[in-house]
């Protein structure tokens, strides 16, 4: 579609198709603080670099003379077949990027057929996002509160709003040292830009009021945001045994996000989890950590096909998706690229980025001589190191 528009009608795309220009283009649409929040990472961004370098080390080995004009990108996860292996990674506080925010992104997800993972730190309520996503596939990402009553309230609301899979993020016991945000005195939900965030939950609101002499969340949004984040990002860790609370209160699949160590992957299997996401939060948590892709093969081996292994952190192109699939990921989550699309052109921008990635994936799979994602196997990639 983009080729035809360009070559025959001289129409250039609304959002750049060049992954390396996307961030620069988004920069023009964002204030300093919002840009720093999305483009930044932990510490000196060494983990973000490692994520990209890891993709550079793996190379695809193309095959020739294969009849493969019809490529099958369909992907089945937890009994549901999706048109492609793409998933929208959970992203918080989207109102700081574009007024379309979570409802726009969730609608875009429905329109392109990609599962939408709603963040607990959203600037719209669970009910609003569920409605906006309509007939789409939606998953709920939990920043896991220490108060079980609040957790259960969030889970019940997510269930009632049609969310089917629970994604529990484990790598954010507290927020990392993120200089780009610290230099801007920036934490979007404490600075009051994301009024709805987790503290829109009715159980949280009741407890807030009880603790604060009848004060409502709206009376002191900063304090509410502070109390909410002080609980969820307190630095305390939940125990593996505590997963029972989630299992008891969520009938659908539960997926742990933020796994980087094969031993943790094994623990996830032992504790009856339904899937894991190999992720380092896009390099936003532990600075100096290994590139997420580098841990994927060992984790896939450790899991022995008992549960699906999903992947994120650093994916920017169709080739990157192929590499992750060849190394054993069943599906991939995309983070910053679609946030840049949202920043540039709202809902349509999200769609442009996702459709672009799907087209790139389809094209590259074809050129590499594969018939679809079922041909993405370990033998199609090799790890190399070129000098310099
Ligand atoms: C995130 N991420 C994230 N993860 C999560 O579990 N809950 C959240 O609320 C957020 N919020 C969030 C905001 C922003 C601005 C970014 C960039 C990231 C992490 C996200 O889900 C995913 O793991 C990474 O973004 C994947 O890496 P790439 O694709 O951005 O390199």
From TrEMBL:
By sequence similarity, the record places it as follows:
Belongs to the FMN-dependent alpha-hydroxy acid dehydrogenase family.
One annotated GO molecular function:
oxidoreductase activity
Tell me the protein's name: FMN-dependent dehydrogenase
Give one Pfam family.
FMN_dh
Q: Which PANTHER family match?
A: DEPENDENT DEHYDROGENASE, PUTATIVE (AFU_ORTHOLOGUE AFUA_6G02720)-RELATED, S -2-HYDROXY-ACID OXIDASE-RELATED
Q: Which residues bind FMN?
A: 90-92, 119, 141, 169, 257, 279, 312-316, 335-336
Q: Active-site residues? A: 281 (proton acceptor)
Q: Looking at the record's lineage, which domain of life comes first? A: Eukaryota
Keywords attached to this Swiss-Prot or TrEMBL record, sorted alphabetically, are: Flavoprotein, FMN, Oxidoreductase
Query: Which CDD domains does its entry note?
Result: LMO_FMN (cd03332)
Cofactor(s) needed by this chain: FMN
Please report the stretch or stretches of sequence annotated as the FMN hydroxy acid dehydrogenase domain: 11-386
The UniProt entry, under InterPro entries, shows: Aldolase_TIM, Alpha-hydoxy_acid_DH_FMN, FMN-dep_DH, FMN_HAD, FMN_hydac_DH_AS, LMO_FMN
Q: Where does glyoxylate bind?
A: 37, 143, 178, 281, 284
């Amino acid at each position: 579609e983009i080729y035809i528009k360009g070559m025959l009608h001289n129409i250039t795309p609304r959002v750049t198709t060049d992954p390396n220009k996307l961030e620069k283009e988004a920069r023009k649409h964002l204030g300093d603080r919002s840009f720093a929040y999305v483009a930044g990472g932990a510490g000196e961004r060494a983990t973000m670099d490692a994520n990209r370098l890891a993709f550079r080390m793996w190379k695809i080995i193309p095959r020739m003379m294969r009849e493969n004009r019809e490529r099958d990108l369909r992907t089945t996860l937890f009994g549901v077949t999706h048109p492609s292996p793409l998933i929208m990674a959970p992203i918080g506080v989207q109102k700081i990027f574009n007024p379309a925010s979570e409802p726009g992104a969730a609608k875009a997800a429905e329109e392109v057929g990609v599962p939408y993972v709603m963040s607990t730190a959203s600037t719209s309520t669970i009910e609003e996002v569920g409605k906006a996503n309509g007939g789409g596939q939606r998953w709920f990402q939990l920043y896991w509160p220490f108060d079980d009553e609040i957790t259960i309230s969030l889970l019940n609301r997510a269930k009632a709003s049609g969310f089917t899979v629970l994604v529990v993020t484990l790598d954010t016991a507290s927020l990392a040292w993120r200089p780009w945000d610290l230099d801007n005195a920036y934490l979007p939900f404490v600075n009051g830009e994301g009024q709805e965030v987790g503290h829109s939950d009715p159980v949280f609101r009741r407890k807030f009021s009880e603790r604060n002499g009848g004060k409502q969340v709206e009376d002191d949004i900063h304090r509410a945001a502070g109390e909410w984040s002080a609980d969820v990002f307190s630095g305390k860790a939940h125990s593996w045994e505590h997963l029972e609370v989630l299992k008891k209160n969520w009938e659908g699949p539960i997926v742990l996000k933020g796994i980087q160590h094969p031993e943790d992957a094994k623990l996830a299997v032992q504790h009856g989890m339904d899937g894991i996401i190999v992720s380092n939060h896009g390099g936003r948590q532990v600075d100096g950590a290994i590139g997420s892709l580098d841990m994927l093969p060992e984790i896939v081996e450790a899991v022995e096909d008992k549960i699906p292994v999903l992947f994120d952190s650093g994916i920017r192109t169709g080739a990157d998706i192929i590499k992750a699939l060849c190394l054993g990921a069943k599906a991939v989550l995309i983070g910053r690229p679609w946030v840049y699309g949202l920043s540039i052109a709202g809902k349509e921008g999200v769609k442009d980025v996702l459709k672009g990635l799907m087209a790139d994936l389809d094209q590259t799979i074809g050129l590499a001589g594969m018939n679809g994602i079922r041909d993405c196997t370990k033998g199609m990639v090799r790890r190399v190191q070129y000098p310099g």
